[in-house]
Amino acid sequence: MNYVLGVITSFSGPNTKEVTLKARGQAMTTAVDAVEIVRHRFMKELSIGKITLGSQEMPPREGENKPTTVSTIETTLILP
Amino acid sequence: MNYVLGVITSFSGPNTKEVTLKARGQAMTTAVDAVEIVRHRFMKELSIGKITLGSQEMPPREGENKPTTVSTIETTLILP
Q1: Which residues of A touch B51 (CB under 8 A)?
Q2: Which residues are CB-contacts of B45 (< 8 A; sequence separation ≥ 6)?
Q3: Cβ of residue A35 closer than 8 Å to a chain B Cβ
């Protein structure tokens, strides 16, 4: 719900017509949930603009020596 | 990697130009990972077509009495 609040707060700025949520790894689920909650429960006038999937290389975790690749998602919400 | 193999196998069918992955809840992360692995490691010629986010109401889990809503993602991969 923090993300939901963040999106709604972002749209409350003057002249803010677009908000993009970026997330990687397991947080992608949270980001999609936030998008769905915002547009179905709070701001029904929003539409989904571009959705982009990607990959990002992360430095090795402690105790490991190989970098890991995580997936990313970027979702843009648009106010008409 | 089962999903990766599933996508590659699906494309091996005759005249298969598009494969759509659907996932809900935590599995959305797995689906995005599979898309990224397929298109960066195995079938670099693929492009991402439509990505759709949605919500789906699920029957109550055992011991609960309220239906829960889960987010969904559908990603279409296209062979040029």
Answers
A1: 51, 53
A2: B79, B80
A3: yes
